[in-house]
Amino acid sequence: MTPMVDLAFLLVTFFMLTTKFAPEEAVVVDTPSSVSEIKLPDTNIITITVDKEDRVFFGVDGQGTKEALLDKMGTKYGVSFTEEERKTFSLLTNFGVPVNQLKSYLAMEPADRKNVNQPGIPVDSARNELGDWVHQTRLTNPKVVIAIKGDVDVSYPTVKRVMDTLQDRKINRFNLITDMENRPTNL
Amino acid sequence: MAEIQEKADSGKGGKKRAKKMSVHLDMTPMVDLAFLLLTFFMLTTTFSKPQTMEINMPVKPDTEDEQIALKASNAMTIVLGENDRVYYYFGLGDPAENPEVQTTDYSANGIRKVLISPQVRGNEKMTVLVKPMEGSRYKNVVDILDELKITDTNRFAIVEMNDNDKQLIQDITGQ
Questions:
Q1: Which of A110, B153, B154, B164 could be disulfide-bonded to B148 (CB atoms 3.0-4.6 Å)?
Q2: A98 min Cα distance to partner chain B (Å)
Q3: What is this model's ipTM?
Q4: Do A16 and B56 touch (CB under 8 A)?
């Protein structure tokens, strides 16, 4: 029995050390599949999630980046955030509320925050907050790469608006997050 | 539980030896726990990092003059329609040329066959213009980019529908 137990503990240790819990996201999206084999880097990414109700969510990694970003956006939109709100914000994976509702969203209890219906970040030409978020993030952390994670059923005009927003900010290279698919061997 | 078994003294020999003790430890609960943890971590772990598809959009030109005109003979247009339909035609969609619009789908025998046909493959300068319609889904765009990648078509661009395209599609769908 001892060798088996040894092996079992070895495996437990291995899985304990390698496992990384998937971060909690505001929405679940079903991404389309592609044969592309490029992997997304682990750090310095902005994830723009578009769910099937055409709502846009913004997320960036790095707690320091997020705190600095919130300050900049607060200054730009004339909203001031308390230390506690900054802390809460730095722990969010992504969010989909306009800046003027962000304060009340951050003040919620974590359980309520999960249940609340987020309207999505405005990307209209009249009020394009997504562009500001991306722009300010790039000023905070110039190394970021941008990834768009769209649901299979998102209508094209929404994705187009997001892409146009990025292009208006002179970002012409970005990533589309997809699932794996086998490359057909015979053509 | 741990228990110590003492060997019964045989009484023979008479030599005073340190009593041999064998410690017997019941490991079953520990093993149970170990396997429970093992199962838990095995099931929760995610090895797959998300795949991505990198796209480079063309830089928006400041003026119209900076754009290079595309010859109609080197152009192919793919229109992504509603309900996962694909329309394609060769040329730039000038109504005077009366391009022949075909309908196909995203399957292996659909648009892929067209993209590997000699008409596309044989022409090095062939540029594929992808025009997603208002009613198309995001999946369609990713699918077509994927097909272009599979067929190794490097010259392509995502562009907006113009009125000629709309007219051509309307003619074929009869709406």
A1: B153
A2: 24
A3: 0.77
A4: no
Cβ neighbours for A47, distance < 8 A, ≥ 6 positions apart:
A58, A59, A60, A94, A147, A149, A177
Whether the Cβ atoms of residue A49 and residue A149 lie closer than 8 Å to each other: yes
Tell me the CATH class for B71-173: alpha beta
pTM for the full predicted model: 0.76
Judge: B149–A151 Cβ closer than 8 Å, yes or no. no
Between positions 29 and 88 of A, the ones with CB within 8 A of B are: 31-40, 42, 50
Q: Extract the residue ranges of chain B whose pLDDT is less than 70.
A: 1-19, 46-49, 60-68, 93, 95-97, 174-175
pLDDT in tens, A78-134: 888 888 888 888 888 888 888 888 888 888 887 787 788 888 888 887 778 888 888
Residue B141: list chain A partners with CB under 8 A. 156, 159
Chain B positions in Cβ-Cβ contact with residue A44 (cut-off 8 Å): none
